[in-house]
Amino acid sequence: MLAFLIRRTLYGCTVLWGAVTLVFIIFNLKPGDASQMLLGQRATPEAIAAVNKDLGLDLPEYQRYLLYLNDLSPLSVHSQTELDHIYFNTEKYHGFQILPMGDNGIYAKTPYLRRSYRSKRDVADIIADALPGTFILATLSMIFALILGLFIGIISALKKDSLFDRSALILAVMGMSAPSFYMAILFSWIGGYLLYSVIPLPIFPLVIAVLLFITWTIHSHVKGTWSWKGTGRSLVKALLWSTGAWLILLILNSLFSQFIPMDWLKAYIALPGTYLEQSGSLYEVDVFDGPYLAPRNIILPVLTLGIRPLAIIIQLMRNALLEELGKDYIRTAKAKGLSTYSIVMKHAFRNALNPLVTAVSGWFASLLAGAVFIEFIFGWQGLGLQVYEALVNEDFPLVIGSVIVISSIFVLINIIVDILYGIIDPRVRMNQ
User: Fold this and answer.
1) What is d(CA 294, CA 304) in angstroms, rounded to the nearest whole number?
2) What pLDDT is recorded for position 131?
3) 8 A C-beta contact, residue 359 and residue 316
4) What is the tally of helices (H) and strands (E) in the chain?
5) How many CA atoms lie less than 13 Å away from 309 in the CB half-sphere?
6) DSSP states of 16-66 as a string?
7) How big is the CA angle at 186 (ends 184 and 189), to the nearest 5 degrees?
8) DSSP secondary structure string, 119-155?
9) From CA 276, how far away is CA 317, in angstroms rounded?
10) DSSP-assigned beta bridge partners for residue 108
11) Which of 124, 227, 302, 375 has a CA that sits 20 to 30 A from residue 338's CA?
């Protein structure tokens, strides 16, 4: 166990070093001058030189890279005499000296992520303020995707090739195909604008669906083929047929409205709206009462961010459970007379969790990294919005600090997943 943790930690440090190096190279190869951008077009050469010295931009690239790694390392070397320089100021390190070396010393400290170019605040403080918002958003999105995805996936596996199964697969394909930024705009427009005050329930397809359902139910009673299962299918078919007919008539009405007026198609029953704002954060500020909790602002971002992991979980759960249900030990359990619930939940479901654990862990870390567009469109105060603003303003320390934090979360989650494998499946040996 200890050897496993050491290997994984070293592997994680290698991943972090690669991420830091890549982002550092990208920001130093791109055109542009951070000091010029901060001071504006009318900045004097003296002011630009002073800012470059303050930010360490007057040094060669290789020296800046080594000094940045020195700041990030838990063990770093720095001078105790040149306190006026940002790279040697002992006040920036929260740690203690473990080995003096003349004018220099080796310090054990927390990683120093520098200061933001724009706000001059410590990057660690900015990330600490923003990360909880993104963590809450990602956690609730994953919980939503897990609960709904597991339920749909299990039912789809048990009802293979049924209407429910096919509908679930269509939902999964659509969820994986839809870009996050497009779905965010769509959800914000529909949920926060079109359906804000009123949810219009069209009368025509509802009436047609009821008539079709009553007709098919009476017909099945007359033929003696009525069943609860058939009733559910009839209800779904009635809704699909009536909705399809209504959409076709709407298209015809839009094309030939001058010849065939069908205003009655637009009649609807007004239901209460969503009353969800198109943008907003977890805490809003009232002019008179100050900050207050606004949990409804998280509903649309959670639904948008949870669509893609929901689609993955549905497919993985369905396929893994179908594979387990076809194995010999399941047939043996059926032969022994075990109930369907016991077979599925106590045997097949647990063995089908392995691929799901991998997907959930990876997607949770991806949600933290991929919330940039979601937070920008919904105005959600989190790490994603900070990264977007840092990229726009070319705030290198904040960007690379965010990359380091997200990469660290990836590494930590992978280690936790490997440990969970050993708990879920005893056949997995962590010391191998």
Assistant:
1) 18
2) 87
3) yes
4) 18, 7
5) 32
6) HHHHHHHHHHHHHHSS--HHHHHH-TT--HHHHHHHHHHHTTTS-HHHHHH
7) 105
8) T--BHHHHHHHHHHHHHHHHHHHHHHHHHHHHHHHHH
9) 32
10) 75, 96
11) 227
Start-to-end Cα distance in the chain: 10
Structure tokens at 248: 């076709």
> What is the pTM for the complete model shown?
0.78
* Residue % of the chain over a pLDDT of 70: 83
How far is the C-alpha of 129 from the C-alpha of 378, rounded, in Å? 18
Name which of 28-32, 61-65, 90-94 the model is least confident about. Answer: 90-94
Amino acid at 235: L
The residue whose two tokens read 């838990």 is 74
Residue whose pair of structure tokens reads 């306190």 in the numeric block: 83
**E strand spans, 298-378:** none
The identity of residue 147, as a single letter, is I
CB atoms within 10 A of CB 404: 19
Are 226 and 217 contacting, i.e. CB atoms less than 8 angstroms apart?
A: yes
